[in-house]
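Appendix B: complex inputs.
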Amino acid sequence: MAIFRMSPPFLAGTNRVTIQMLQVIFAMIPAIAAMVYFFGPAVLINISLALTVALLAEAILLKLRKRPVKPFITDGSAAVTAILLAVAIPPLSPWWLTVTGVLFAIVFAKHLYGGLGYNPFNPAMVGYVLLLVSFPLEMTTWLPVESLADKPLDLHSAFQLIFYGQTNAGWVADTVSGATPLDTMKTQIGQSIAPAYIVNQNLFGSLGGLGWEWINIWFAAGGIYLLYRRVISWHVPIAMIATMFVLSGVTYLFAPEITGSPLFHLMSGGTMIGAFFIATDPVSGSTTVKGRLVFGAGVGALTYIIRVWGGYPDGIAFAVLLMNMLAPLIDYYTQPKVYGATK
Amino acid sequence: MTKTLGFFPGGLKLPGHKKRSTQTPIRKTPLAKRLTLPLQQHIGSAAIPIVEVGDKVLKGQQIARADGHVSVCLHAPSSGTIIAIEDHPIPHPSGLTAPCITIETDGEDNWVERHPVKDYRSLSTHEIRQIVRDAGIVGLGGAGFPSFIKLNPGVHHTVETLLLNGAECEPYISCDDMLMRERADGIIDGIEIMQYALRAREVILAIEDNKPQAISAMELALASRPHLQNTRLVVVPTRYPTGGEKQLIQVVTGKEVPSDGLPIDLGIVSHNMGTAYAVGRAIHHGEPLISRIVTVTGKDVPHAGNFETLFGTPISELLTYAETKREPDEAFILGGPMMGFSLSGDNLPVTKTANCILAGVDDVAPAQEPLPCIRCGDCASACPASLLPQQLYWHSRAKDFDQTRDYNLFDCIECGCCDYVCPSKIPLVSYFRFAKTEIMNQERERKKSDLARDRFETRQARLEREQREKEERQRQRKAALAASKAKKEQQEKAAETADADNKETE
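Resulting structure:
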């Protein structure tokens, strides 16, 4: 007979932290493939670099904190943080940008708070926001989708750009990058150009940003897979998407000159990765059922507000961090009614 | 059956593993050489022995009497000689010993004279309760609460519904299933008596839908008694822990038992199927509770099944009889895999609450270091009491017991669903049990210190009062002395005598 624990229950479910994390990574694969398709192999270089740095930092920090390395390095949480951050950073960012972001996420946002399960803020978003406020220029220039690029970048040139700053042909990152659709929308609305006109430019697709719409669709598909596997619950993503849809819908109806369409907002930038992969982080989010609805709605509303009236083209990261702060409060006020409670 | 069912939040679909022990009919465990009977096999005070070492006893003879209200009698499961009344290891999670009566059986199995009741309707409710109490019947679902108390709704309540719990939701256990399949008539005998005793308006038999044979057996038995009014069988979905009293009530009636109340507050009394059977035997056959059906099952039990076993039979003999692959003293589980506890030791007896002995769990939870909580909330979605196990865990771990109470720790039924789903494999129920015990200890300490303070303050008051009285007397004496100075010498002498009197009384 196997040695079992001495206290009940003696039956164990198959649910494991590692399995959940691996499912999350698995669910991101189609969207990452789409990113590679649209922005070239630089995305993969970023992810590999982020993964390496994250796992190394995780191992060193665990050693320093005198924690067992194996169970924690294999839990997959550092890998998820690394990938989320890597896909949020512009593909041609210099290597030190990725390294700084990942190190800050793992060391400061995660381990200095006590490691897995103890971080009040989403580590990937802390890393992202640090980079965004410290290096705004590097963080807001994206590669155009391949069909728009004059010269598509091969793996070799991408590697050279990331690690040496320029290719053999003398290109620097600036030569090949430009503004994202969200950024363009924001800037041109600022110049009093009508959104309906803006979306006719070739940077935009039929739903959102060209390419970005597909990336968002694939992130949503991955998210639905996670829902199906019960890794995440529907409350956060649905609340977030619904809130963004309603807010942008109402604004679009009454003030079409200041906002893109609801579909544009759902299918651009980080909406879907935010809804299904970032705001659903259990550790830093709300944990009660009602609380998750509030949390998701909060992220959706703040994201939209920042996009339209804030100083940044996208607002997922700030929205998530702000809601992280409120999570304990939300949890406290959304406790479920206990069986037999007479109150 | 047409009425729509309610549901309870949370819960789990668990692999049943029940087929293993339902392939053979109920077998009788052979008579053991020695039967060891703990004096306390029920909730309440232990029974008091009424036999002495050396006494010859007959099967079914009372050997210990109930002590106080919440207590029941104990009977000799077989004929033989009392060879010891002393402490003996009992099936307790902490490996405790407790006073037990040990009988050396003579192999004759001679019954004491029994007094069957031909027509239970000739008995008063009170007489039925007395018979049930004298027969030593306790809840056989696992808790062991004296059943006669639950046949007495009290003057303030009327019983709307008598609920017979045949859910048996915990994996592996099949003793109620087999009892219903084989002895449906006997169970309904007991149910009739219970309904009569409680004056219950309706009777509901609830059985999980994973027991089709038991359901048809019970339906058949019910159909053969057309005189049974307002009695219906409700098939409930198989979901753990449907068999929890509060959960079953929620499923069957849609009502919730108030947090600080009892089912009777809703006009509901619930009993286990096995208990009903025992009540039937006690009234119709005059047999006290001396045996029960025990499921012996698990990966390591090739001849798993259900065994009608006399109380006091060593569990090890039962395991050997089922040809369990097992080292001497190897641990086994008493009860189900979700709420039972692990025991080792070969001389532990089968008691009234021993519904299942489990050797070898299939999807066993390995002993491992848990990961930190990642706040996924799966525990909260699985909790049938709608608690937040995660918050309870934080506060239990921090020994912040006031907070655990705020989060309704005492509404936890320790079903283990949260443990089961936890991706970090945190032993949540163990934390909750720890916190509950600590709180109860603190409560006890507080009561003790309240008592001590009360005692101290009363003593202090008494001392002060005595001091005041003494001063009063001295003052009076001085006054008397001063008055006497003016008087004559004889009068002075008289005053001194009074003074001496005063001193004596002091």
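Chain B has 13 helices and 17 strands.
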